[in-house]
Every structure is written in structure tokens, then in C-alpha cells.
Design brief:
By secondary structure, this protein is of the alpha+beta class. It has 10 helices and 9 strands. Among the domains are: 104-188, SH3 type barrels; 201-279, Alpha-Beta Plaits, CATH 3.30.70.240.
């Protein structure tokens, strides 16, 4: 009779004692794994995956489990030899790009525009450009020439002018209205609006702009004080403003060509017509009407020709008889001709040898 032996179950304490060495071995292998493998694993992963890499342990044995380890963050790479490491100030400057700085002279002009003051320009080439009082209106930076420009009223020429800022040596403040100011002007008017805009007798202008220019004028800064633009139902716009210099007003109006129709004043209309006639060419101007020619005098009627009776031709016989008379005629002419003075006679004496 065979006897079968049933295996006894090991107690839980014994099983736990056997699993402890296996866990300890797996943890030791995971810790002993070189950092190079972790770096290679991270470099092989695509950028979209998280930086934490999972490293599988190769521990084998009963009850061995997969160990997961999170590597430490990568140390910053050392800079190449010869190149200094960027400091915190340089890093902050690189993160936020600094805007272009405004030159000192341009800043002075900008302050004058904001405060409504006129300024005095002193040029670097004083012989070519004399000092002058200037009323700045616009300060712009041109992308083509990479330079700053100021536009306004030049009181030296009493006209609008552009000046390049880098050609100036000094920009000085002017107290009050300054020199060559036109007047009278309303009290409290900024000094940079006196010259062809509000100095002298006011000129009220009204004009109609065609629709292709309405948007452009709306986006541009006002050209004159009290500048108003009112849209009409047909897409056009009614423009009204006040200024004092007829030349500046006509230049502003003529920039639109046939896209503007001046309504008032009448002298502005006449000014534009005169300039347009000159543009077309003086030779094309209508010449003054020629003076009317005097009426021709009535000529007297020609008198009827009278038929005079001619003498009959003489016969040849009678002509032959008058032959000697013809021969005598030249002798008469010789006698009648004035006698010339007798020529001088020179007497030559021969001396004896």
C-alpha cells in the first residue's frame, strides 16, 4: 500500500523571508545602473514625451517585480572654452528686446509738440542754414532713409517745411510766440499753431472729398485746426477747417487732384485754377482774342480804258529820209554833256649828262 505525502504549506513568515532578498537585489541593481543609460534613454525619446524616463530593472528571480526610477534633472551643459557664460542681466535683456531709443534732439522736438511750444533750430552747417524759429507738428521716422524728420511751419520762409533731425546741432525752447510770428491770433493758441494755421486773418474752407479719399483723410492726422469731416449719403464727405495761409491751403487741396471739389472760398477756387493752368503749360493757355481788323475801304471802280488812236506807221521811205537825224543825235548829246576838267600835264625835264 503506497503512502502519498502532501506538501506542507510554508508559513507566511517564511515566504516573506524568501522574498526579501529578491527585492533587495532588484533595488540594488536599479540603483547601480549608470546615469549614462538614463541620459541615452531620454535622448532617444521624442520631444513630446515627458522628461521623466522609465527604466526597467532586469532583476530576475522568484517574486521579482519591475522597478521604476525617475532620473534626476540634467545638469546644465558647460559653455565652450573661450566663450564667457551669459550673466543674469544679459539673459534678461535677451528675453525682452529693448526698443530703439529716440535721439536727444528728437526727444526735445517731441516734448515741444506735446506742450504746444515753438522751438529754435540751430543747424550743424550754420553757413548754409541760418537759425530759425520752427513750429513742429509731426515727428516721423522714415524706414527708407533710417532718419528722423520733423514737419511744421518754418517762420523764416513763412511756409511748411520738412527738416532732417540729424542735420541739427541744437534744439532750444522758445518762450512765448517767438520771432516772425503772424498775428493777431486767439488767446491761448499754442505757439506751434500760430504760423499758417491760426495766425492772421482766418480763412474758412469747405470742400467735398470723393469717396476714394475719405478713408485716407480719416486715418491721417488733421492738417489744420478745427478740422471736421462729415460723411454724406453718396459716399462722399464734407470737409471744413480754418487756416490763415492761402498757399498752405491750396497745396493741401491740390494733393487730391480731381478727387476734391472746393466749395468756398472763391479765392481758393481761383488760386487752384491758376495753378492748374500753369501745370498744363503756359503755351496752352488761351491767347487773348485778336483785335478786330478794320473794315476794308471800298475801292473806287476802275475807269473805263480809253482807246487812244495811235498814229499810223510811217512808210519806210520817210524813215530812210530821217537817217541823218539819228546820226546827229549822239553829237548833240556830246555837246549837251557837262564838260569835264582837263587833265593835268606833267612836264618832265631832262638834264644833260
Amino acid at each position: 500500500m503506497a503512502v502519498t505525502k502532501t506538501p506542507r504549506k510554508k508559513p507566511a513568515s517564511a515566504v516573506a523571508a524568501e522574498e526579501k532578498p529578491a527585492k533587495a537585489k532588484a533595488e540594488a541593481k536599479a540603483k547601480a545602473a549608470p546615469a549614462k543609460k538614463a541620459v541615452e534613454t531620454i535622448a532617444a525619446k521624442p520631444a513630446a514625451e515627458p522628461v521623466a524616463a522609465k527604466i526597467k530593472g532586469a532583476a530576475r528571480g522568484k517574486g521579482a517585480k519591475t522597478a521604476v526610477a525617475v532620473p534626476e534633472p540634467l545638469a546644465p551643459q558647460a559653455p565652450e572654452p573661450g566663450i564667457p557664460a551669459p550673466g543674469p542681466e544679459k539673459k534678461a535683456a535677451a528675453a525682452t528686446a529693448a526698443p530703439a531709443t529716440i535721439p536727444e534732439l528728437a526727444q526735445a522736438i517731441l516734448s515741444a509738440i506735446c506742450e504746444g511750444r515753438a522751438v529754435e533750430f540751430l543747424f550743424a552747417d550754420a553757413e548754409a542754414n541760418a537759425p530759425r524759429t520752427f513750429e513742429p507738428r509731426h515727428l516721423t521716422f522714415d524706414a527708407l532713409s533710417q532718419a528722423w524728420y520733423v514737419w511744421g511751419w518754418d517762420r523764416r520762409y513763412n511756409a511748411e517745411r520738412h527738416h532732417r533731425v540729424d542735420l541739427l546741432a541744437e534744439v532750444n525752447a522758445v518762450e512765448g510766440a517767438g520771432r516772425a510770428a503772424q498775428g493777431p491770433y486767439a488767446e491761448g493758441t499754442p505757439a506751434n499753431l500760430i504760423g499758417g494755421w491760426l495766425g492772421g486773418d482766418p480763412i474758412h474752407v469747405k470742400a467735398t472729398l470723393l469717396k476714394q479719399w475719405v478713408f485716407a483723410v480719416k486715418q491721417a492726422p488733421p492738417a489744420f485746426p478745427n478740422f471736421k469731416i462729415e460723411e454724406q449719403s453718396d459716399g462722399q464727405a464734407l470737409v471744413s477747417f480754418t487756416a490763415t495761409d492761402l498757399r498752405a491751403i491750396s497745396r493741401w487741396a491740390m494733393q487730391f487732384g480731381d478727387g476734391i471739389q472746393v466749395l468756398e472760398p472763391a479765392r481758393l477756387v481761383d488760386r487752384i485754377k491758376q495753378v492748374g493752368a500753369v501745370w498744363a503749360g503756359r503755351e496752352r493757355l488761351g491767347s487773348p482774342a485778336p483785335a478786330p481788323k478794320p473794315a476794308p475801304r471800298p475801292e473806287p471802280a476802275p475807269e473805263p480804258r480809253r482807246h487812244e488812236s495811235r498814229p499810223a506807221r510811217e512808210p519806210r521811205e520817210h524813215r530812210a529820209e530821217r537817217g541823218p537825224e539819228r546820226e546827229q543825235r549822239p553829237e548833240r548829246e556830246r555837246e549837251e554833256a557837262p564838260k569835264s576838267k582837263p587833265g593835268k600835264i606833267e612836264v618832265i625835264r631832262f638834264d644833260r649828262l
